[in-house]
Design a protein that fits this description.
Distance between the termini: 9 Å
Largest sheet: 7 strands, antiparallel
Helix content: 25-40%
Number of strands: 18
Shape: globular
Structural class: alpha+beta
């Protein structure tokens, strides 16, 4: 926790906010302030009603870009920390209020779909537009964003862009940074900046990336334009294979992807992780999954290549219908989150994930190193009920590993995060750095990976630090996220 550097006490902050926005836009209800002080990194503590961090002074529900600008200018003038949020699906502590008397600036009310441009294949939305709502609207017109993270039923566009989100169909459509055409953002002093929508330009560095992935540590995203694609689900073809080990699975997906083919879904599950998803057919094996999507001719060619590559390795084919059924039930909505809460309370057991990225040549090494270190050197290893990983996003040069760990909690609820979650997260991050990988693939750095930001970037941290100095010289933007306190 950091001490507030504000020149105002809490009562004065509330008075100042009342001069900027309508009274009903300011929330000071104690229960809502507690919930706003954490994100899903502390889901076990919060389900037990434990909120040890500093509570925000208020939640401000913005209704316009002008609201965001006024609140940020006020906060900047008085040294008040601001945490930006929209859909509240963050998992890495980026939404935690690490500073006393923070303003949580909520953009969920900026929820208009501003334009669906079918000629130029792009759509413009405000930051609070839910991804699922937009996707449903687009599919009525035979279009899709191609963006399908597991949080799709809940996530909103501000958070998706701010955390460099990625979706389950990324190998075909790309990640959010590949989809963003232009955007609007508000900086700490209230300056509103718009980056125009063009297909490409060579007019200096790509300034979109000052905003994309900034996690509210540099600015507040208020509007975004993203690409759209034709939606052709009738052409989808599903493939599944059982193989003996991770090395074989990784070799299979590498050959398909580096050969120039782009299935929408490309995955490899370790046996432990596979048990969670495919217990009715995995047979204790590694599970490899592909989905070919798009125009019919491309789908057929992609499926033929998948079949050709698989034939080079010992495998057992899986009924495509089983893969299709699995894929239709991947996303997490309110019901699954509520069920998870009840399970945590009843069983004192929960699971988390830590995702990193790595070159192809060191993917299996990283997987083996993490498995060995956790199983043999993590002090509470006996409490693990599942430890596994999967690769779910692949590129010409490498892939990601999404480590998954479930454990029984043999301590007081307040102690869980320090006994289990933080050290397990740290092991995976450290092992990724040892093999030259990245400490985070798509969930954002947040506050719990920020201690490794300098090591992640090395000499390039100079560039990141200069962005912070330039755009947030008073340090009011989401203190502790990306940039360590």
């Amino acid at each position: 926790m950091a001490k507030s550097h504000s020149t105002l006490i809490r009562a004065d902050i509330l008075t100042g906010l009342a001069d900027l926005v309508a009274a009903e836009q300011i929330v000071t209800d104690p229960e809502q302030l507690q919930q706003a002080s954490v994100d899903r990194f502390k889901k076990y503590q919060s389900v037990h009603g434990i909120y040890d961090g500093p509570l925000p002074a208020a939640i401000v529900n913005a209704r316009s870009t002008q609201d965001v600008s006024r609140v940020l200018a006020f906060a900047n003038a008085h040294g008040i920390n601001v945490v930006a949020r929209t859909g509240r699906t963050g998992t890495e502590g980026g939404l935690e209020t690490a500073v006393e008397d923070t303003i949580v600036l909520d953009g969920s009310g900026l929820d208009r779909i501003l334009a669906i441009d079918t000629d130029n294949m792009q759509v413009t939305v405000e930051c609070g537009v839910p991804l699922q709502l937009l996707e449903d609207r687009l599919r009525e017109q035979g279009l899709t964003t191609g963006h399908s993270p597991q949080s799709k039923p809940l996530a909103q566009y501000g958070g998706l862009v701010a955390t460099r989100s990625i979706g389950q169909l990324s190998t075909l459509y790309g990640a959010i940074e590949d989809m963003v055409v232009g955007l609007e953002a508000v900086f700490a002093d209230g300056t509103v900046t718009r980056i125009k929508n063009v297909p490409r330009r060579a007019a200096g560095p790509d300034i979109r990336h000052i905003v994309i992935g900034n996690e509210g540590a540099l600015c507040y995203l208020t509007e975004v334009t993203v690409k759209v694609f034709k939606y052709q689900p009738e052409n989808n073809e599903f493939h599944g294979f059982l193989v003996d080990d991770m090395a074989t699975g990784v070799a299979m997906i590498r050959e398909v992807v580096t050969g120039g083919y782009r299935p929408s879904v490309v995955r490899v599950y370790s046996p432990e992780d596979a048990r969670q998803h495919f217990d009715h057919f995995y047979q204790g094996k590694v599970v490899v999954v592909f989905v070919a999507e798009g125009p019919k001719g491309l789908v057929r060619a992609t499926s033929e290549e998948i079949t050709r590559v698989a034939a080079q390795y010992p495998h057992t084919a899986v009924d495509p219908g089983l893969i299709e059924e699995w894929f239709a039930n991947l996303n997490w909505g309110v019901e699954k989150i509520e069920a998870e809460k009840q399970h945590m309370l009843k069983e004192a057991e929960l699971g988390y994930t830590t995702e990193v990225s790595v070159d192809w040549s060191r993917t299996v090494e990283l997987y083996d190193n993490v498995m060995d270190r956790i199983r043999n050197h993590f002090p509470a290893a006996d409490d693990l009920v599942m430890l596994g990983a999967h690769s779910s996003h692949s590129y010409q040069t490498g892939t990601n590993l999404y480590f998954v760990y479930d454990y029984k909690i043999n301590c007081a609820p307040r102690e869980e995060i320090d006994k289990y979650h933080i050290p397990l997260n740290a092991i995976i991050v450290e092992e990724a750095l040892k093999v030259g990988g990245s400490i985070v693939h798509h969930h954002g750095i947040g506050k719990y990976r920020a201690p490794w930001t300098r090591q992640e970037h090395g000499s390039a941290y100079y560039l990141l630090a200069k962005l912070k100095e330039t755009f947030d010289p008073n340090g009011i933007m989401n203190k502790g996220t990306i940039f360590p306190i």
